[in-house]
Structure formats: C-alpha cells, structure tokens
Amino acid sequence: MENIAAKMEKKQREVKVIQFGEGNFLRGFVDYMLDVANEKGVFDGSVAVVKPIAFGSLERFREQNGLYTLILRGRQEGETVVIRRQISVIDRAVDAITEYEDFMALAHIPSVRFVVSNTTEAGIVYDEADAFSLTPPNTYPGKLCKFLFERYTAFNGAADKGLILLPCELIENNGGKLRECVLKLCERWQLPEGFKSWVNEHNLFCSTLVDRIITGYPKEEAAALEEELGYSDGLLDTGEPFALWVIESEHPKQVEKELPLPQAGLPVVYTRDQTPYRVRKVRILNGAHTSTVLGAYLAGFDYVGDCMADSTVRTFMEKVVYEEIAPTVPLPQEEVKTFAASVFERFENPFIKHALLSIALNSVSKWKSRILPSYLDSVRMNDGKLPELLSFSFAALAAFYTSGSWQNGKLTGRRGETNYVILDDAAVLSFFGERLKKPEEILIQELAENTAFWGQDLSKIEGFCEKAAGYLKDIRADAKKAIQKLVG
C-alpha cells in the first residue's frame, strides 16, 4: 500500500513556526490548528519541526514528506463524531543533535515568527551545567537560548526578528518560566548585554493553557484505519474533538493579529490573564475526576466510561460538579456550566478508555490542588456549610489508601478479591501504611491535621472530621451503597 505522500500534494509556504517536539500532542493540537488556519486563509505559513532529544527518529517524516492523518473521535452535542483530516502544514523536520547545522540554519529564516514547544513538564528547566559550547546544549532552554543568539547575530539584533514563544508544556506560567531559564543562561554564559536586551524587549514569552486528549498512534486499529483511508500512514494520530488553547500575553491583540486562529473558527482565547480558565479546567475537569474516581473504583468500576454509564456514579459526578464545584469558579456561571457539559461529553468518549487507577496516581497532591480550593471557597460562600460530596471525596481518599497492606515500603490496596498498587510519594505511602488499622475517627483526624499534605490544618474546619469519618465508615462497609445513599 502506498503511503500518504503518494496520495497527496503539499503547497509550499514560508516557514513561520519552529516547533520543538515532533510528538503526537503537538501534531494533533497546534499543527492541526495551523493547518485549518491555512485552509481558511488566515495564516499562510508552515512549520519546521525540531527533534530536541536523541530518542526517536524522523524517518517517517521524511518518507511521508511531513504529511500525516489526524482522526478526531468523540461526542459532540450528544452525537458521536469522527473527523478525518490530512495535515500538510509541516515543511521539514530536523534533528537538533545529529543535524545541528541544519537546526541553527532555521534561525536564519527571515519569515520565522513563532516558536512552539512540548518538551514534557521536565523540559523547561534551568541546568547550570548546560554549556553554550555544546552543539547543541542539553536542555530545551539551552537549545532555545543558543537558537535565539544565532538569530540575534544573523539579523544584527533587528527588533522585527524577535519571536513569539508559545510553550505548551503542562506547567503553570510556562512562558514565564521559560523566559526565566533563558535569561539565567544568558548570565551564566556571559552573553552580550545587547542580546539580553533583545531577548527582553523584542521576544514575547506567552504562557499558555492547552486542553485536548491526544491518544496518538492507534496501534491496534492502524491496519483497519489505513484500509479505510486507502494509504499507509506511519504518523497517523488520533484524539478527541474538544480543544482549547488559552494564550496569555501582555499584548494579546498583537499576538492575535499575527496568529488570528479564532478567525478560522478555532477554539483559541487570547487574554492578559489565563487564571480563570486554568481554575475552570483544574476545578471542573480535573476536579470531577479526583472527587469521583477513588470512590468509584472501590465501588467496582475500572474506567471513566463505565462511571458515565452508571446512573449512580454519574449522578454523583454531575452533582459534585454542578452543585459544589461550578459555583466556586470565577467566570460567568453559564459559561462554566457549558464547559462542564462539554467535560461530561468528553468523559463519555467511546474511543478512549481512561483507567481510574491511572487517574488515582498521586491522589493526595491532586486532592490538595484540584479539590481543596473548591472546598474552602464553597464553605466560605455558604456560611460555613460543608459541601457533602466533596467531603465524601476526602473520605474516599482515606478508604482507597487504607484498604490493604503495607510491606517493604509498598502500599497495596484491596477491592474485594483484587489487589491494586497505590502510587504516591514515599511520605504519603508511609503515613497511610502506618495507619491501616486505625478507627475511622482517628484516621480522619490525623489525616486532616497533616499540614504537610494540605498546607493547613483541615481539622479546624468545623464539622469536617465528623462528616468525613461518617462517610469513611459507609465506604468501608459498601462503597457503592455509600454513593447511592449520598445521591439518593
């Protein structure tokens, strides 16, 4: 079977985007959006992909001339949708390590205006051992700093040759942290003052929030999908239809003018402050998961889709989101509820199997970041009244972590006849492992008092420990009945 390059032509466009990272996410999110923007006539640019690490190969990019197929599958407005799109926005792919000169040559392209990246959460890091003399430097900020210096030198510090940087790494304030790393390297490497001023004054580091589940290469379905498509595609990528890209900048109108993605009907928001959107995502999408999955797992469920198909667990999730979490989000409530509805559609996606035990990883820190802010705001907004379902989620966390055994630093839970491994920080595992047999009231009291976990003493919230201990007894007796009892 011929590959996609034999079936499709690609229009040549000026390279406007340098993309650090060749993986599934950027191809299914950023490159997809740029491809749509080209089709709609609002962008007219291409992407040069840079492979920033030694692992992996660009062979398929070359075999397929940078072309690939993206299939988006899921639920939208109550209907199952499947969208197939051939993506032609990638102009070339370069290995920063084995093709260093080609990588540096990209800095000399006059039309380049943007840098996007997804180098994982560990990618934006300052390493004082990194060196300017390396070809290339080890870290992403090191490679970027040297790339920017190459561009500064090539164009004699021209103001209009600065870049707009759009990191997509899943860390808060990713743009600010990337800028901070680059400037530290400027100092460490004793680069000219003129270059540092150019970085500060003529390069715009935007923080972004990205949201789309990309499931990547569909290994088990690939042969059948290629048969339907009529060609082979080693870069085939899959994901969900939902997407949101929030781009924060001191000059949002300037960035939108140069990258007018909303004009192409794309879900991109330009703003001076992405905080409300981050709060919305963390509290509703992530909060729906964390408040529900531990109790649901103990009640016998294994996947998010199974929870959505069960009337009891689904009712719990809808009530906790709409009644206890959504009112705490600092955005117009109609907008918040619309977002929540889209979240539930995403959870129903029949093409994604999201295991509850995967979501359960590091649940203590997740409860602190995803649930506790909603909990405290709810108490404050309701004159001290405790949110019932969020209180239940705290008890479910305690039950999940204390259902089994503790041996040799390994905490194992037990559900019926099934054992499950609990993964968290060593201090968390040790805390629960030493309290497996404690009565509900004592366990909840000591857990609530653990300021190292929560940043404060939750036992001081009036009625908190009593309520959570009561729910813990119910969950230990029968988790599914406990949820049924709570939601009616």
Keywords for this structure?
488 residues, alpha/beta, six-stranded parallel beta sheet, three-stranded mixed beta sheet, 21 helices, 45% helix, 16% strand
Characterise this structure.
The protein has 21 helices and 15 strands. The protein has helices at 24-28, 30-39, 59-63, 100-105, 140-154, 174-188, 193-202, 222-229, 252-258, 275-298, 304-309, 311-325, 333-347, 356-359, 363-381, 388-401, 426-433, 440-448, 451-454, 464-477, 479-487, and strands at 15-20, 46-51, 68-76, 79-87, 90-95, 114-117, 164-167, 204-205, 207-211, 237-239, 244-248, 268-271, 405-407, 410-415, 418-421. The radius of gyration is 25 Å and the shape is globular.
Oligomer: single chain
Low-confidence segments, given as residue ranges, are none
Please state the CA-atom Rg, rounded to the nearest Å.
25 Å
Write down how many β-strands occur, each being a DSSP E stretch of 2 or more residues.
15
The average pLDDT is: 97
Strand content: 15-25%
Share of residues in helices: 40-55%
Arrangement of strands in the largest sheet: 5-2-1-6-7-8
User: What general form does the structure show?
Assistant: globular
Main beta sheet strand tally, sense and closure: 6 strands, parallel
What structural class do the secondary elements suggest? alpha/beta
